[in-house]
Specification:
single chain, alpha+beta, 3-stranded antiparallel beta sheet, two-stranded antiparallel ribbon, 4 helices, 9 strands, 27% helix, globular
Length: 171
């Protein structure tokens, strides 16, 4: 059964930081954020001087989110640099066997009108009145309906930020 959760990301954080000896922020800066050419970002901790809350609360600019979407569109490349392997990009954008609308913490398919459903146990209040115009929309979801979307068939990336608004219609 597919059950939406963030626990896997938090476990991966523990594995990553122990295996590399780097903090989450240092690892991201060296291997991901820096090569993307991104500027300032903010990571929330679980307590003062604690661990990064990798399940949420990563705050940065719209341009930085757009660079992430463009990197995914480009198969993990930024210019001539391969930041993430094409095999990993393929895996994270492939539907899971238990939920064909979900990959590795990203949505891969049309939402289910009238509300997008992450799994049988969790319904988001995000409204969807009709299917997306493109069938290959992929997106990351942020708090309050914020989105980083890309459409591979169109080579298009879109960022939706702003006031928290659960009445936003994703269609």
């Amino acid at each position: 059964k597919f059950v939406f959760n963030h626990v896997n990301s938090q476990i991966l954080h523990a594995v990553l930081t122990r295996a590399t000896g780097l903090s989450y922020a240092d690892f991201l800066t060296r291997y991901f954020w820096g090569p993307l050419g991104n500027g300032a970002a903010q990571i929330r901790l679980d307590e003062p001087n604690g661990n990064a809350r990798v399940v949420c609360c990563f705050q940065t600019t719209a341009r930085s989110w757009l660079r992430i979407a463009q990197m995914v569109l480009d198969g993990g490349k930024v210019g001539d640099a391969q930041v993430i392997s094409p095999a990993w990009i393929s895996q994270m954008t492939t539907p899971t066997t238990l939920n064909p609308k979900y990959g590795f913490h990203m949505y891969l398919a049309q939402p289910d009108p009238p509300q997008r459903r992450a799994g049988t146990d969790r319904v988001q209040p995000t409204q969807v009145t009709e299917p997306f115009a493109a069938s290959d929309v992929r997106y990351l979801e942020g708090r309050g309906g914020q989105r980083t979307l890309w459409i591979p068939s169109k080579g298009l990336a879109v960022i939706r930020i702003g006031k928290i608004n659960f009445a936003w219609d994703d269609a």
